[in-house]
């Protein structure tokens, strides 16, 4: 379980996140919604330790460790010329001995087997030996999720993981994130710009407005107040 308490972020003298509390339970997919500039990415980055913030973040009651959180981004950071399997193996880099992590071309067999199992979980084992750049955007995002699985992190934070995907691929990726949350008991937080997808796939929705949580609850709750009217019409 991820528990963030009192997350406060300043950019220069401007406070953009105002003491946000957010929890994500193991086995839960939490969707974070909010208009542009409401602070969603800042909250995610603060929770991950990528942006300096006041407040506390614990994972299952412990202080957040460097391998506790796996990240999935809108822009899929795969090494295109390397194989799909090698990309998934890099999820394990943080727990390999230093001499191994300096020569990632030579991943141990145990890591390659685990990476293959992660690829099976996302339905892409048959593409393991293809170049990553040869896969579609939706498939590449599923590889990024397999890499997160290979990290064995209990928490996955995904910043707009489906914004660059077509509607069918977006559905597939969200369905996968929900399934992994439920079956692998991961705590998954996904920043989304699509209220309808959040309603369908998330177990809970948190809404941000001006750097503060203004909604927290059932996916069926009305989220229109989070958006300027015109934005809602284009995003759902
Ligand atoms: N590196 C930065 N330096 C200064 N201000 C920033 C920086 N990053 C974000 N901000 C400001 O912080 C506020 C929150 O931005 P953030 O990117 O977290 O919002 P968001 O909800 O993720 O937006 P979007 O939906 O457009 O991605 C905005 O006012 C933004 O201009």
From TrEMBL:
| UniProt xrefs under InterPro entries | AAA+_ATPase, ABC_transporter-like_ATP-bd, ABC_transporter-like_CS, MetN_ABC_transporter-like, P-loop_NTPase
Swiss-Prot/TrEMBL keywords: ATP-binding, Nucleotide-binding, Transport
List the Pfam families hit by this protein, alphabetically.
ABC_tran
**Molecular-function GO terms, alphabetical:** ATP binding
ABC transporter domain: from which residue to which, for each copy?
Answer: 2-235
Q: PANTHER family under this entry? A: AMINO ACID IMPORT ATP-BINDING PROTEIN (PTHR43166)
Q: What is the name of the protein in this document?
A: ATP-binding cassette domain-containing protein
| Organism expressing this protein natively | Saccharopolyspora endophytica
């Amino acid at each position: 379980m991820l528990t963030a308490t009192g997350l406060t972020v300043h950019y220069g003298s401007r406070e953009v996140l105002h003491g946000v509390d957010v929890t994500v339970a193991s086995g839960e997919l939490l969707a974070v919604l909010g208009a542009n500039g409401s602070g969603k990415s800042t909250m995610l980055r603060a929770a991950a330790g990528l942006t300096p913030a006041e407040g506390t973040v614990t994972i299952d009651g412990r202080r957040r460790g460097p391998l506790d959180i796996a990240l999935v981004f809108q822009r899929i950071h795969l090494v295109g010329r390397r194989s799909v399997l090698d990309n998934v193996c890099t999820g394990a880099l943080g727990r390999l001995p230093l001499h191994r992590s300096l020569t990632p071309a030579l991943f141990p067999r145990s890591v390659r087997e685990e990476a293959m199992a992660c690829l099976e979980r996302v339905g892409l084992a048959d593409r393991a030996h293809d170049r990553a750049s040869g896969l579609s955007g939706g498939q590449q995002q599923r590889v990024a999720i397999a890499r997160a699985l290979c990290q064995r992190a209990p928490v996955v934070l995904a910043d707009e993981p489906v914004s660059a995907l077509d509607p069918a691929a977006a559905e597939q990726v969200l369905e996968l994130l929900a399934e992994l949350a439920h079956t692998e008991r991961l705590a998954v937080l996904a920043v989304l710009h699509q209220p309808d997808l959040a309603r369908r796939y998330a177990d809970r929705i948190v809404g941000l407005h001006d750097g503060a949580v203004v909604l927290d609850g059932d996916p069926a709750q009305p989220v229109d107040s989070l958006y300027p009217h015109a934005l809602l019409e284009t995003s759902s």
